[in-house]
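tool_call predict_complex ligand=nicotinamide-adenine-dinucleotide
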Amino acid sequence: MRLLVLPGDGIGPEIMAATLEVLDSVSARFALGLKFVHDMVGHASLARHGTTVREELIDEAKRCAGIVLGPTATFEFKDPSKGEVNPSMFFRKRLDLYANIRPNRTFPNLPNKLGPFDLVIARENTEGFYADRNMEAGGGEILVTPDVAISLRRITRQCSERIADAAFRLAMARRKRVTIVHKANVLKVTDGLFIESCRRVAANYPEVIVDDELIDAMVAHIVRRPSRFDVIVTSNMYGDILSDLTAELAGSLGLGASINSGTDYGMAQASHGSAPDIAGKDIANPFSLVLSAGLLLGWLGQRHGSRRLLDAARAIETGVEAAIATGETTRDLGGALGTGAVGHSLARRIAEAVPA
Ligand code: NAD
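tool_result ok
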């Protein structure tokens, strides 16, 4: 089973090295036979190939079982005509990875002022306010005059219904609650269509309790009592913003894991960026990408009906939980280890764990 490995920029190479060590460890323990296909995106690719992401990576991704993508310095990529393309967008759009699933939960032994919570954000990944994936040709942002700019947001019934369906399927395996997050009091047509699409899908899942919240109020509700929420379904930008909040409330943005998935392909990706402020210092928390890789193994396990992949995914999750409980973490979680040392200790813990 081959995984395409793309470390990215900033802290990307550091958290990727730790993630690969953990993947090697679960691969040996559960006889997964994981093989890594190493390539590059972001600044390294721009310098070597004149573009931040190469077309042939799509073919390579299709030959692999999944992708593990590190964060990239997307804010610095301004001009696609100079090869400065957002690699996340490239894979999400080209492989139709419409569901960005971002689970966030608290861990025992990690101080948390808001009490325990366990929620998942199902974020639509292929349209919304993200100008680079909205249009067949051209961008969704227009500079009308040097002083007037317009941004177009596309919301479609098809994309809203498929993310809603992903959210309801998730809820059926959890606490059977879905909250639709929107701003339909102002964006009556677009967010109105989003809610209507989600409610139509809800009719197929009568066991699931559904409510909805405005995005602004939702931020207050989450900070007030996050345990109220199970699965949150929302459009692209709201989901992006909310999930940084919920990761930080769980303990650190460095716990922000995610999987981007569609019908045929899956891509593990931390929900944060390239963190240039801490890059190269061996202090970034690798758990975001490690847990994302675990989500990818779980997704592959369900797809292929493989007990070993599902067990490997579970071993990553329980390994991280045990590491947090014993303080073998980076400093954002109160520990004293570096990024590399966290990777070594988690890989060792998984290798030495007594089989269940
Ligand atoms: P960021 O998410 O990189 O960092 C925000 C804060 O969280 C920083 O203080 C950072 O040090 C901290 N942080 C992030 N990841 C951490 C980790 N694993 N461990 C400990 N602390 C962590 O946001 P930013 O600084 O606004 O963006 C930096 C670059 O990343 C920009 O170019 C932005 O466009 C890009 N970006 C990329 C992605 C992606 O590739 N998916 C996502 C978001 C932002």
